[in-house]
Amino acid sequence: MSKAIFQHYLATAPAIALDAVSQRMLHTLARQWASKKPITVLKAMAILPEISTTTAHRRLTALRELGYIDLEPDAKDNRVKYVVPTKVANKHFEALGAAMKIAVQGVAA
User: Fold this and answer.
1) At what angle do helices 20-34 and 87-108 cross, to 10 degrees?
2) CATH no. for residue 57?
3) Which of 6, 51, 87, 90 is the right S-S partner for 55, CB 3.0 to 4.6 Å?
4) What phi, psi does 72 have (nearest 5°)?
5) Cα(17)–Cα(86) distance, rounded to whole angstroms?
6) Is pLDDT larger for residue 107 or for residue 74?
7) 66 near 58, Cβ under 8 Å?
8) How many Cα atoms occupy the beta-carbon half-sphere of 91 within 13 Å?
């Protein structure tokens, strides 16, 4: 069953592959977005304490270049930028959620 779930995820997820650290960063950012807490670039760079700020910045840049995140300036201070999800990120999480539903149904059956 797990192979079918993975294949379903691959069929519905964005075609852009992420490395493990980038996936973890994106998923950690998603928890912040789900709680409706805005997250600045500076806070996002410290979201994974086990990686350096340089690595975090590279991963944020890669996520932005791949279309998973975007940066929006603060309304009052243009120096402050907020990390926000894009349609690609939303599609990624929709596909992941659908795969999890299939997995739960398979376990319940």
Assistant:
1) 90
2) 1.10.10.10
3) 51
4) -120, 130
5) 16
6) 74
7) no
8) 13
| Amino acid of residue 97 | G
Could you tell me the pTM of the whole model? 0.78
Q: pLDDT grade, residue 96 (50/70/90)?
A: confident
Q: Does the pLDDT of residue 1 top 50, yes or no?
A: no
Tell me the two tokens of residue 55.
Answer: 């690595």
Burial-class residue 8 by CB neighbours within 10 Å (0-12, 13-18, 19+): middle
Total domains in the fold of the chain: 1
Element (H, E) at 42: helix 41-45
Measured between alpha carbons, how far is 93 from 26 in angstroms, rounded to an integer? 10
Give the residue numbers spanning the domain of 54: 2-108
47 φ, ψ to 5°?
-70, -25
SS (H, E, C) 58-86: HHHHHHHHCCCEEEEECCCCCCCEEEEEC
Per-residue pLDDT, averaged over 51-74, amounts to: 95
**Position 36, amino acid:** K
